[in-house]
């Protein structure tokens, strides 16, 4: 087996993912100092999802892991550059959004293939839900560990 894990095509797709994320961030007026970081979050999300997918993980689980990556990196960057987390999250999920799958779903319905449309639609919805769940879990984990570390540093405990 003389095949490399990532090819020149993959590098081109990663650059395209960066460009799409960056342009999306420009369109939504993300502050200039965060544009490159948002682009890198999106690129990283795509790379993580692609890598996990190539390991044989299902597309829904890959999307979940990609969503977790976006949330965790976004939480870190938001604290680092003192900006809202949503600045990084909204742009960072752009490469993960299953737009081509949604298009394929609609195409199946238009072509009269309702059963294939339902199957593709279900997968599209599951991928979108997995991204959301990954964002929720990843962000929660980072905030919980940060809070626990802060509590240990100050010697306080929350008894609520």
End-to-end CA span = 57 Å
Strand content: under 5%
Rounded mean pLDDT score: 91
Structural domain tally: 1
State the order of secondary-structure elements, H for helix, E for strand.
HHHHHH
Count of individual helical segments: 6
Structure summary, number of beta strands: 0
Bin the helical content: over 70%
Major sheet: none
Q: What is the SS-derived class?
A: mainly alpha
For this entry, give a set of tags:
mainly alpha, cell membrane, 160 residues, transmembrane helix, ThrE_2, membrane, ThrE_Dicarb/AminoAcid_Exp
Describe the 3D structure.
The protein has helices at 8-27, 35-54, 59-81, 85-92, 99-110, 114-154. The protein is mainly alpha-helical and 160 residues long. It has one domain.
Q: Topology, please?
A:
Layout: H1 8-27, H2 35-54, H3 59-81, H4 85-92, H5 99-110, H6 114-154
Helix pairs in contact: 1-2, 1-4, 2-3, 2-4, 3-4, 3-6, 5-6
Task: Briefly characterize the structure.
It holds the Pfam family ThrE_2. Helices cover about 80% and strands about 0% of the residues.
